Structure formats: C-alpha cells, structure tokens
Amino acid sequence: MSEFRYKQVIAFRSDLKLSKGKAAAQVGHAAVSAAEEARKHRKEWWKAWLNEGQCKIVVKVKSEEELLKLEKQAREMALPCALIVDRGLTEIPPGTVTCLGIGPAPTDKVDKITGNLPLL
C-alpha cells in the first residue's frame, strides 16, 4: 500500500521511440496540464497532493489506442486528466498523441485504471 493518499500518473506511449529529452518534455506537459485540471475542478485533491509532495508515477502503454482507452476510463471515473497531442515541431508529426496525465487524485481511484501498467 502506498504511503501517499493522492498521486498523479502519466501514461507514456513507448511505441513512439522519442529521444529522452522529447519524452521528458511530453511527460512534463502531461503532469502540468493534468494538475491544472485538478486545480480547477478538484481543488481539494490538488491541495492534498501538493501538501503530500506531489507524488508522480510514469508508466508506459504500447499504443495510442491503449492511451485513449485509459483516457476514457479516467473520464468515466471523473478523474482530472489531460491528453497531450504534439504540435509536430521537432521529432514527430503534428497531431501525434504522446501521453496522458491522470490526477492528482486519490491513489485508490487512480490505481483502478493504472495499477497494472509497467513503469517507464
């Protein structure tokens, strides 16, 4: 059992084969964007997460399809989330879906949809 009551999970598409820097930037976009969604819509979760130290976990998925399925599940559970679509200025074509930030939200809720995914 995690010591954190709240966490954020970023699911990243491992099939894209991005450079480490590009991958880090995309994960950063997802973390900030999803946190902003929580701040706007679930302020109590966002504040608790900030106070606990902003736990973030990065996991990998194998495809855009898997990422979109996760987004659908997160939205059905009313979890704050943000799907990141790249502008295509560097390594990948415009419109490429790269990752999904989920939470911050209660750990047990996030784990229901991301708990079995492998770490990046």
Notes on the structure:
- This protein has 120 residues and is an alpha+beta fold.
- The chain has a single domain (6-114), classed as 3-Layer(aba) Sandwich (Bit1).
- It has helices spanning 20-41, 43-52, 64-76, 107-114, and strands at 6-13, 56-61, 81-85, 97-106.
- The mean pLDDT is 96.
Quick structural gist:
The longest helix has 22 residues, at 20-41.
The residue fraction in helices comes out at 40-55%
Could you tell me how far the N terminus lies from the C terminus, measured between alpha carbons in angstroms? 20 Å
In N-to-C order, the SSE pattern is EHHEHEEH
- The strand order across the widest sheet is 2-1-4-3
Which structural category fits the helices and strands? alpha+beta
| Principal-axis shape | globular
- The count of strands amounts to 4
CATH superfamily: Bit1
Provide mean pLDDT, rounded.
96
Blueprint of the fold:
Layout: E1 6-13, H1 20-41, H2 43-52, E2 56-61, H3 64-76, E3 81-85, E4 97-106, H4 107-114
Parallel strand pairs: 1-2
Antiparallel strand pairs: 1-4, 3-4
Helix pairs in contact: 1-2
Defining traits:
alpha+beta; globular; 4-stranded mixed beta sheet; 120 residues; Bit1; single chain
